[in-house]
Amino acid sequence: MTAVLTEKNGAVRPPVRPGGPQPPARRRTGRERAFDDVPRWQIYLPLGLYLLFTLIPFYWMLLFALRPAGSTALVPWPMTGEHFAKVWNERSFAVFFQNSMIVGVATLIATTLVALAGGYALARFDFRIKGAFMLALLCSQFIPGALMLVPLFEIFRNLQMINSLWSVVIAETVFQLPLSIILISGFIKNVPVSLEEAAWVDGCSRFTAFRAVVLPLLRPGLIAVGSFAFVHSWNHFLFALMFLSEQDKQTIPVGLNTLIGADSVDLGALAAGGVIAAVPVVIVFAFIQKWLVTGFSAGAVKG
Q1: Rounded distance between C-alpha atoms, residue 80 and residue 92, angstroms
Q2: What span, in angstroms and rounded, lies between the C-alpha atoms of 176 and 226?
Q3: pTM for the whole thing?
Q4: Which of 75, 150, 180, 233 lies in disulfide reach of 107, CB 3.0 to 4.6 Å?
Q5: Selection from 30-44, 147-161, 254-268 with the highest mean pLDDT
């Protein structure tokens, strides 16, 4: 039995017979030849320099966090954990970490749920102001958060939400929603409507069809949107500084700012606090990196 092989451009290659003449090999395109002819050192050298440039600040932070106070060694040996103990116990970083985790997780859940509903509406329904609404979402990305501090502060003051973590969660969610809705909408457009229609024929409601058919296919997009919302709310300094004045309600970015005094800076404690702040973000990206690029690229494709 002979098999018919098909080229990428649709041309049919003749079947290969055992012992017979072999068909000519496919000619490489100019782009493939150009990539194969590039020496590997021309690829690895720039990447290595960029990696070195990126990792040096992290090494410098670890150096100050792990070496004893007063040491000038370029290698953190002997290592010490005094700076971590100081910021965690004496500077209330345990409370800051807990508050940041609450804000980050709550923002992740709220942003994902609202963006999922809004993205589905934009992807599956047609209404009169749909184009204007999409334009408004895009234009909202050009508004700096600092311009909205005074109106938001007045709103939260009237609602008696100042010094409440929920004020930061609401503000972070509002500023994350436009981009999240656009990404989720683009991702849902890539899911064929025929899949939902088949579920409707089988007796499923719209919500049941969405939950059973569409939602499992949106996992890369949801992970991308949720992780972006978590990291942004974890690192954001301005909203927490303006809406939270009590020390037991502050987050890690504000806590790091308290380590910078008017006359001196405790570099060891500041570096240890930076390491504590960076660990959750590194863990999140280590687990979701394969989904992150897929989710953002798929959500950016025009349906």
Answers
A1: 20
A2: 10
A3: 0.76
A4: 233
A5: 147-161
